[in-house]
Amino acid sequence: MRTASAFATAAAATALVGLSASAAAASVSPQWARPGQTVWVSDDGRCDLRQGATAYSGAFETVELRPRGHQLAESAKVFPHARGAYRVTIRCGDGQRFHDRLQVGPTGGAHAGEGGSLGGMSDAQFAGGAAVLALAAGGGVLVLHRRTKGAA
User: Fold this and answer.
1) What is the mean pLDDT of residues 34-48?
2) Helix (H) and strand (E) counts for the chain?
């Protein structure tokens, strides 16, 4: 029973970390862009639609986000001279701020150091995936533990 409790506790903690990480992030898509490319910036529904929001970064001009369904979003064109990693900040009308990253440079092919599998994945998406995997592992342990206990 201790093993099941430990896994259940670990799964719950991982889920909480995943939820808290997603609450602090903006959304930039794609997260890897070429100079001159257009990216999509969104608040993912975190700002009040009536108060509006702006997005700014060293990679593009400040843009005013507009209502798009249940979120505020707009496209932004990356500066032709932009290169490297940039922080993208969304500032809601009430003063809240959310951040994401944008990498500008040559694209096409796997990104070194990531194995090509994590390109474009935000910290919030990674944390959410980790939480789902932890919950699945905890559920598997519970099922196996109950089977073993019932067979004895």
Assistant:
1) 96
2) 2, 8
The conformational region for residue 45 under phi > 0 = left, psi -120 to 50 = alpha, else beta, is left
The whole-angstrom separation of Cα 125 and Cα 136 is 17
* pTM, entire model: 0.56
Residue 61: CB atoms within 10 Å: 11
Tokens for 39?
A: 């990216």
70: left (phi over 0), alpha (psi -120 to 50) or beta: alpha
- Read off the pLDDT of residues 14-32 as tens digits, 9 standing for 90 and up: 444 444 444 447 899 999 9
Q: Which helix (H) or strand (E) holds 39?
A: strand 38-42
How far is residue 102's CA from residue 59's CA, in Å, rounded to a whole number?
Answer: 8
